[in-house]
Amino acid sequence: MAGIYIHIPFCKRKCTYCDFYKEVAPKFIPSIINSIVKELYLRKDYVQNATIQTIYFGGGTPSILDVEAFKKIFDAIYDIYQVAPDAEITFEANPDDLTNLFLESIQSLPFNRISIGIQSFDDTDLKRINRRHTGQQAIEAVKNVQQFGFANISIDLIYGLPFQTLESWERQLDIALNLQVQHISSYGLTYEEGTVLWKQREDGKVTAVDDETMIEMYKLLIRKLAQKGFHAYEISNFCLPHFKSRHNTSYWNQEPYLGVGPSAHSYDLKSRQWNVSSIKEYTEAIENNTAYFEVEKLSLNDRYNDFVMVSLRTSEGLDLEVLESKFGSLLKTYCLQNIKSYIDTKKVDYLDGKLRLTDDGIQISNLILIDLMKV
Ligand SMILES: C[S@@+](CC[C@H](N)C(=O)[O-])C[C@H]1O[C@@H](n2cnc3c(N)ncnc32)[C@H](O)[C@@H]1O
Ligand code: SF4
């Protein structure tokens, strides 16, 4: 089992909060597509003949590409790899790209899942964070996509946007839940150092939502989504039955994946690899056959830390038997010793050999995870 991630590092403009690697430089799209295709061939042995179960186009903005660009990438993937007939094949899209013309043009491509970045339906919120679309456009985008036959749709929402109130957040959730999508990813806004938003906060132009309101917003999110049948299968990911993101779940299950494109990460169970975050350096290196990535060999402690970090964020929880079989009894004891105080204070449930964050534990998950890390 393995997955492929393709990073499309272009946006039509930059949102103030975002620190994913992207450039507003459409003239480089053709050369990046060529380099991505070359990289797919160069790294054909990375996943060692494993069948590809998931393909994910992320960004940046994959929906900026036209059908010909997607075709070139798919041709390479299907030429090189064994792709499972029922593979999950997703692309991220910005609402204003999802026009009838665009959706019509990609009908022949093998996509069966779409992840639409909406963030908010409130036009004032959207303007403040420099999004390209309005709330109405986002609603229409979802409806369009449904009309074109997509039956596995995810949307992204951010809570805790500057000046957002609990009431306004509730309105966003009501609109989202009316849209009949199958999956919702919702992250609390983080102020990433170096972003425009971060600078605005430093300069006193925006005020971050206080911690208590953030907690209330998260609780509201879980409650409202649960009422409509959404299962919180990971701290920030919610789905109707049978609609988990298989691609993200494979990350959390530590399955190998190949990441291509500038800034993409790869993982092969023994090491992590990350490509340079520069369109220029990436395309030149691929052309000249020189190095364009760094590799980090993973120690036992690194792999234990990764395992704890991802499994504790999922609703399945952390299975201590699996932990012991992967990393040995010493690390299992270490984990149990460090989590004991959280079990005693009901931040973590310990049941049937599994550790799971309680609702209170989720609020301080970062703190708990730090205490479980082995350096
Ligand atoms: C890298 S974006 C790509 C999706 C697409 N380009 C879009 O914006 O519609 C993936 C998602 O990460 C989330 N995200 C990015 N930066 C974030 C931040 N600073 N805080 C919270 N969520 C963030 C957003 O919900 C976004 O839709
Ligand atoms: S959130 Fe999406 S559209 Fe906005 S800058 Fe980031 S990648 Fe681009």
* CATH topology title of the largest domain: TIM Barrel
- How many structural domains are formed by the residues? 2
Beta-strand content: 15-25%
CATH homologous superfamily label of the largest domain: Aldolase class I
* CATH architecture term of the largest domain: Alpha-Beta Barrel
Number of helices: 15
By CATH reckoning, the class of the largest domain would read Alpha Beta
Distinct ligand kinds: S-adenosylmethionine, iron/sulfur cluster
Could you tell me how far the N terminus lies from the C terminus, measured between alpha carbons in angstroms? 30 Å
Judged by helices, strands and strand pairing, the structural class is: alpha/beta
Mean pLDDT: 96
Q: Give the overall form.
A: globular
Short description:
With 375 residues, this protein is an alpha/beta fold.
Descriptive overview:
- By secondary structure, the chain is an alpha/beta fold.
- The chain has 2 domains: 2-251, TIM Barrel; 317-372, no CATH class.
- The protein has 15 helices and 15 strands.
- It has helices spanning 29-42, 67-80, 100-105, 123-128, 135-147, 166-178, 196-202, 211-227, 246-252, 279-288, 300-311, 320-327, 329-344, 359-363, 365-372; strands spanning 2-8, 52-59, 83-93, 113-119, 153-159, 183-188, 231-234, 237-239, 257-260, 265-267, 271-275, 293-297, 318-319, 348-351, 354-357.
- It has a 9-stranded mixed β-sheet, with helices on both faces. A 3-stranded antiparallel β-sheet has the order 10-11-12, with no helix packed on it. Strands 13-15-14 form a 3-stranded antiparallel β-sheet.
- β3 (83-93), α3 and β4 form a beta-alpha-beta unit.
- The longest helix has 17 residues, at 211-227.
- The chain is globular, with a radius of gyration of 21 Å.
- Iron/sulfur cluster is lined by residues 11, 14-15, 18, 20, 22, 59-61, 94, 117.
- S-adenosylmethionine is lined by residues 17-18, 20, 59, 61, 92, 94, 117, 119, 156, 158, 187, 189-190, 192.
